[in-house]
Design brief:
With about 650 residues, the protein is α+β, with helices and mostly antiparallel strands. It has 5 domains: about 70 residues, no CATH class; about 30 residues, no CATH class; about 110 residues, LCCL-like domain (Ferric Hydroxamate Uptake Protein, Chain A, domain 1), CATH 2.170.130.20; about 230 residues, no CATH class; about 80 residues, Immunoglobulin-like (Sandwich), CATH 2.60.40.10. Helices cover about 40% and strands about 15% of the residues. It contains 20 helices and 24 strands. Strands 18, 19, 21, 22, 23 and 24 form a 6-stranded antiparallel β-sheet that branches. A 5-stranded antiparallel β-sheet has the order 5-10-13-9-8. Strand 6 and strand 7 form a beta hairpin. Helix 10 packs antiparallel against helix 17.
């Protein structure tokens, strides 16, 4: 018997054996004198261990040449440089520290989740019974064979949702729905209604409208001048009882107390005919809203009164939300859906909830736009399944913890879906463009701290599982890309939208733990709220698209002199520099009404604007370039008490 050790050290170790016959002399038979046939002997040929099979040629029975022989020269040079650097103690210490922070290189599977022993306790007499919720839900699901009927349950859920949507938008006899910022006259730009407001006169008509709930949370994003008062960060309401025609109708209804803050309602707008209008609009703070005052005459005004029944006028946002919350919880906890089925359900339901209920782009919904966003949403959902939900949901599904999934995932999902409502008081808008106020900075710091804490917890778990390098290799390339996009210049800005932030957070919420379960659901809801409401907006946007109704920073006229009782205001004539910019005339607002357009004069008198000198008046002006008015100046105020203009330094 010969062994592999006789064949050379290249075949050291025994993992597989083969048999071959070998001839050897046979001993003579002393009794018969005949020679015996050759007898086979066993020789064991050893093969390399399994982990060396990649270097073994099975056909030739020889080891392959070392892989280093096929390496390019630059790779060998790189190895020499690396070896030289690592020979330095300081470099080695830094590398060792980095490797310690990054953790092990070998990946390990995450541990399965364990239950939190959620119990349902009830007391009867002197006895107190407590039973774990997850085993009860699993037992009820199996006992009633509920998973076999999940399609029927989903069909009934969808049917109820459709009936509620019909009641919300298509109730027979219900008045048309309007947005929270709708008004008889547009409020921006200041000269939108033309000379003496004539272009808006026909819009001032009687009508009944249905207002959504929550309009007290819809506020101005940029300052508005109402006479001499700057209004911002609140609904635009001018007056009390009698409202200026550019006030927001639903906010006026809330201010009057005739509709609900939560459920909205119907109101009737009764206009005061143009140009009679009204004057002495008083300001007040009632029903949680503050209105601005305005003393001079304004040619458009209206009053509001309650109308319509509760069932025809209520906003179904919160009733539909409650219905979907209960239905989703029951589906998750009792029907024990498979992870893929559960994700598909919350994806479709969440998208429908955003575009039809919580944050619809239009009221009633524009169905072509609703279905337009479905394919992209489903594609994003497939990506979310691949990078996150496949692992987190599968872990809890295998551990049979349906109640915990219903609680943690449901909480994260609904906070994300309702983020526009829940976070409406956070003073952060247009992040990445413009500056934040003090309250906005505090809110942003708080958000960063919360997100940072979650990232650190997840990073510690990833390190333990040897996954830090895997995720760093996928996230770090995004850094130079974002730096380049943030520095494009030419009035382009990096804009991190809802859906981008949510999609960026999904991959790190892939562990089968409760943080991932909550965080992934929140990211999905946050993504649906952003993409469903605003669409797939670009990551880079021009300053003009982000400007909205804010001042653009254009050139403005500069008042050079004001007179006393005569009330004359003067400013320099249009010069060649301004003409080169397309500026050839000015527009003048007097008491927030356009009284001069394409005006080429250089002075204006209080008598040109009004005959009533008993109240304060307000003067603003702007250059006109290529037929469009630029930024208006801050108001110059005529004080009736001393018949003089206040001096305002324009810049």
């Amino acid at each position: 018997m010969s062994t592999a050790h006789d064949l050379g050290s290249s075949y050291a170790g025994i993992s597989t054996a083969s048999i071959r016959p070998t001839a050897s002399p046979a001993p003579s038979d002393s009794k018969s004198g005949n020679a015996e046939e050759p007898r086979a002997q066993l020789a064991i040929i050893s093969y390399p261990p399994d982990d060396e099979l990649s270097d073994y040629d099975a056909e030739r029975g020889t080891l392959l040449p070392p892989a280093d022989l096929d390496r390019p020269p630059w790779a060998n040079a790189l190895d020499r440089v690396q070896h030289k650097l690592m020979s330095r103690p300081r470099v080695r210490r830094v590398v060792d520290a980095i490797n310690w922070v990054l953790g092990p290189t070998e990946r390990r599977p995450p541990p399965p989740p364990t239950g939190l022993a959620l119990t349902c306790a009830c007391t009867g007499g002197r006895r107190r019974l407590a039973a774990p919720l997850d085993p009860i839900a699993v037992h009820a699901s199996k006992r009633g064979k509920l998973p076999h009927f999940y399609l029927l349950y989903l069909a009934l859920w969808a049917a109820g949702f459709i009936l509620l949507i019909r009641a919300a938008y298509y109730q027979p006899g219900s008045p048309p729905s309007v947005s929270c910022t709708a008004g008889p006259w547009d409020d921006w730009p200041p000269d939108t209604c033309g000379l003496d407001m004539t272009e808006c006169a026909a819009k001032l008509e009687e009508g009944t409208y249905r207002c959504p709930g929550g309009c007290q949370l819809v506020k101005l994003g940029n300052p508005r001048w109402v006479g001499g008062e700057k209004v911002n960060k609140r609904p635009l309401i001018i007056g009390d009882g009698v409202y200026r025609a550019d006030s927001w109708v639903c906010a006026a209804g809330l201010h009057s107390g005739i509709i609900s803050h939560t459920y909205g309602g119907c109101l009737r707008v009764k206009p005061i005919p143009y140009p009679t209008g009204s004057s002495n609009f008083t300001g007040s703070s009632v029903n949680g809203l503050t209105s601005a005052a305005f003393g001079p005459h304004f040619p458009g005004a209206f009053t509001v009164e309650a109308t319509g029944s509760w069932s025809d006028c209520m906003d179904y946002h919160w009733p539909i939300s409650a219905y979907n919350v209960v239905a989703l919880f029951a589906f998750t906890a009792l029907f024990a859906p498979r992870p893929g089925v559960l994700l598909t359900t919350i994806l479709v339901m969440g998208y429908a909830h955003v575009v039809l209920v919580s944050n619809p782009p239009t009221r009633p919904p524009l169905w072509s736009r609703v279905f337009q966003g479905v394919p992209a949403t489903l594609l994003a959902g497939f990506w979310a399944w691949h990078v996150s939900f496949r692992r987190s949901l599968t872990g809890f599904y295998t551990a049979q913890l349906p109640v915990e999934v219903a609680l943690w995932q449901g909480a994260g999902l609904w906070i994300g879906l309702e983020s526009s409502t829940l976070f409406s008081r956070i003073p952060i808008s247009r992040l990445g463009y413009g500056s934040l106020g003090a309250d906005g900075v505090i809110a942003l710091v708080a958000i960063i701290l919360i997100v940072g804490a979650v990232v650190l917890i997840q990073a510690a778990l990833f390190r333990r599982l040897g996954l830090v390098r895997y995720y760093l290799a996928r996230y770090l390339p995004l850094v130079p890309i974002l730096v380049v996009l943030a520095n494009l210049g030419h009035n382009y800005y990096l804009r991190l939208h809802h859906y981008l932030l949510a999609l960026a957070g999904l991959p790190v919420m892939s562990l089968p733990n409760r943080i991932s379960l909550f965080g992934a659901a929140f990211c999905l809801g946050f993504f649906l709220d952003g993409s469903g409401r605003w669409g797939w907006a670009s990551i880079v946007e021009g300053g003009w698209s982000l400007l909205g109704d804010a001042a653009s920073g254009s050139a403005m006229p500069n008042v050079t002199s004001v007179a006393g009782p005569s009330g004359y205001i003067s400013w320099p004539a249009i010069n060649a520099t301004l003409v080169a910019q397309g500026i050839r005339s000015v527009a003048i607002l007097f008491d927030d009404v356009l009284v001069r357009s394409n005006f080429t004069g250089t002075n204006f008198s209080i008598a040109d604007g009004t005959k009533d000198r008993s109240v304060d008046h307000y003067f603003r002006m702007a250059y006109i370039a290529n037929g469009t008015s630029l930024d208006y100046t801050d108001p110059l105020t005529w004080h009736a008490s001393n018949e003089s203009w206040s001096r305002v330094q324009f810049s």
